[in-house]
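TL;DR need structure tokens for one chain.
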Amino acid sequence: MIEIRFHGRGGQGTVVLTTLLAHALFKAGYYVQSFPFFGVERRGAPVEAYLRLDDRKILARTNVTAPDHVVVQDLTLLQSIDVTRGLKPGGWVLLNGPPSLSGNGRFAGGRVAVVDATGIAIRHNLGTRTHPIVNTAMMGAFARVMEIPPMDVLVAAIGEEVPSDPERNVAAARKAYGDVSFS
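>> reply
TL;DR here they are.
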């Protein structure tokens, strides 16, 4: 079983991201489980969401405390939250940020991948300049880093599950897929 913890802020689409990925991974043949954990439920508050996938039925029903991988949608969380707590050795840390972050060695024991999902969302008019919605861009980056789900399945999931501007969301996912920087 692969367990992934997602960190973001309320209003960024963190929960929607895990739901979309669960949908795509299910279409790709995996058993999946996706659920959020909220502290204070307000825009801008830290949010965690979890995703599990496996090739057999998932029986666990707990929060993800020892993730195989971590996805961070907002770099400001690094100042207040240990996003890598419990990260298994060799796990990926996927960051929404400038490519220059990929080689900084900040996450000992983890491999780092970076994508400018915020810039991609702004260029594709997803959300606003002050509140870009980065979830589909992060979805594309996730698919590149994890090598699952296949892009055609990802595109189908966005088309089925994203009611507004699916074309722009697909374009953002494709762009992020191609723009990931690895350390």
